[in-house]
Amino acid sequence: MHRWKKQSPCPRHPAVAGRGTSVETEYLIVGSGLTGATIARHLVENGRDVLILDRRPHMGGNVHDHWHPSGIRIHTYGPHYFRTSSERIWSFVNRFADFYRYEAELLTMVDNSLEHWPVVESYIEKAVGPDWEPAFTGTPSNFEEASLSKMPEQIYRLFVKGYTEKQWGVPAESLSADLAGRFAVHGDGDKRLKRSKYQGIPRTATQSS
Fold this sequence. Notes:
Blueprint: E1 2-4, E2 13-18, E3 21-25, E4 27-30, H1 34-45, E5 50-53, E6 65-67, E7 73-75, E8 82-84, H2 87-93, E9 97-101, E10 106-110, E11 113-117, H3 121-127, H4 143-148, H5 153-168, E12 198-205
């Protein structure tokens, strides 16, 4: 349980804080990940009384990190980095931390060779030929058709089909076409995983302002 409080004339309401106990608060937020913590911060800065409940003993959700005794910062729930193209959002998070510039490049093993993901057009040209065309035309009705509308079937089977079916545990043709919006074939040689204007990993926490 985390309590953020400022003086406020607004009425407060009882909220359960634990077995057999209760507290009064204006706003109860369940979960202290990026969304919950951001909402709480804005409410407190506007004079509201906020109570945050989280099943974990820390704030930050899956982006929580901590310092190892060796001095290394460890991402508690696996690697995460922050990215946005919004000037407003970037200015907001920089109130609380300095950031190392970090732009991820993802490599995947394909036919005993490390290749970039998302797929770059130069690889398709090398594997299929310069005159390649997408394997599907028309309006896709599922994930497989949406993926094939971006690439030849050979590339789809090498990079997408097996991984996706293992991830979701169902055939690719049973998944929504919208899921294919998570990736694209990069034709400009840009091999970064994401293209957000601002990308980084927190260096150290700073005083909020």
